[in-house]
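Sample entry as discussed:
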Amino acid sequence: MRPRTALRATPLALCLLLAVTTAAFAHTALRSSSPEKDERLTVAPTEIRLRFTSAVDARLARVALTSADSSPVRLDSLRSGDAADEIVAPILDPLTSGEFTVSWQVIGTDGHPVRGTFAFVVDLPVDTTTVAPATDPEFGPPDPETQPHEAEAEPESAVQSPGNVAVRWLTFATILAIVGAGVFRTFVLESMRSSSTVPTGSAADDAATRAARLGRGAAIFLLLAAGARYFLQARAVEADGLAGDIMGVMLFDTPWGWGWFLQVGAAALALFAFHRAVGDPRRGWGAALLAGLALAFTPALSGHAVGSETAPALAVAVDGVHVFAASAWIGTLLALAAAGVPAAVRSGGGTSMVADLVSRFSPLALTFAAIVVGTGTISAILHLDAVNQLWTTTYGRTLLLKLGAVVLVVAVGAWNWRSVRPRLAISGPAPLRRTAPLELLAAAIVLVLTAVLVATPTP
C-alpha cells in the first residue's frame, strides 16, 4: 500500500470506525406501565404491568414494590403478559393510601441488566376497601404507541463499572492476540517460507514458536476473563453465584450464555492448539485459526448486536466479521512486533527478514482494513440515527474520544508506510521498534473506549 493510497483510505477508515462504534443498540427500556409514573389512583391496583422496548424474559426480571416508609409489599411470582415485551407482578398485600415505589430490573437480549424506579400514589376515599381488577380500563396498560413511558430517559445499566470495563478490555485484547497470532503464522510466515528471499526456515520456525507462545498466553488470560465475566454478571443480576437460578437461565436459555459457552470452548481450543504449536511450530495452526474465528463472533452474541429488533442475524454476522478483520489487522501487527522482529534479530538476518515480513504483512493489512470498512458501512446503514447525537449524548462524546484514538492509530500507520517501511531494508528493525509500540498503544486505548461503549446506552 503506497503512502498516497494510505492517505486516500484514511477518511474512509475513520468513517468506518465511526460507523462501527455507532452500531450498537439501545438497552432495553421501560416503555409504559400500569400504574403509570406519578399516577394518582383512587382505587388500589392489584397488579403491576410493565412493558418494555424489546422482549423480556419474566424469569430474568425482578420487580419490587415498597411503601413510603420503605416497607416491602408482597408480590406474587412474575409472569409474562399479553405480549413478549410485557411482565406482570400480581400484588398480594392490599394497598392503602400513600405513595408507593416500583423498582424493576430486566435483562435485555444483549445480556445487560437494566434497572429503574418510578412512583405512584394511592388516594383511597375514606372507608373504601374495594380494589379495581387488573382488567379495569381505568388503569389498564396504556397504548405503548401513543403513551410512551416517562420513568427515565436513560435506564441505569448494571454493567458499566470499572471492573466490567476492565474485563471487556481484556476479552477484546486477548481475542485480538489469538486471531493475530494465527493469521501471522498462517499467512505471513507461510508465504515467507516459500520465498527464495528468506535465507533459512529456522527463523520462520522461531517466529512461529514465539507467536504460539503469544497465542497460548492470550488464551489463558481469555479463560480467566470468561470466569470473571460470569461472576460479574452474577453480581450484576444479583444472582446467588454458581447456584443462582437467574444465572442458570442466563447460561442455557439466552444468547449471552451461548456466547459465553462458545467463548470458553473456543478459548480452550486455542489453548490446546497453541500449546501444540509451541512443541512443534508446524502443527496446530488450523485449530488455532478456527478458534480465533469462533471467538470473533462471541462479542456479538454477548453484546449489543444480538439485541437488534430488525435484523439480529445480519447484525451478528457483520459484527463477527468486523471483529475478526480488525483483530487480524492489529493482532497480526502485534505478532509481527512481538514474534517476527525478535526472531529476525536472533537469526542474524534481521534487516532483510524484517523488511520481508513487513512487505508480506502490508497487503494483508490493506485487505483486512477494507473488510473492516465494508462491515462498518453496513453497520452504519443498519444502525446510524442522527449525527448531532455525537456531541449531545454521553454515548456520542465517548465515541468521539474513541475516534480521536483511531485517528492516532491511522496516523502512526500512515507514518510507517511513508517513512519507516522504506528504511527497513537499510537500517533494520530499529525504526519499526519505535513506531509499532505507539500504534499498538493507540489501539489499546481504542479497545478501552470500545469496552466502555459496549455498556453505554445508545441515544
Summary: The first strand starts at residue 30 and ends at 34. Confidence is low (pLDDT under 50) at residues 1-26, 128-156.
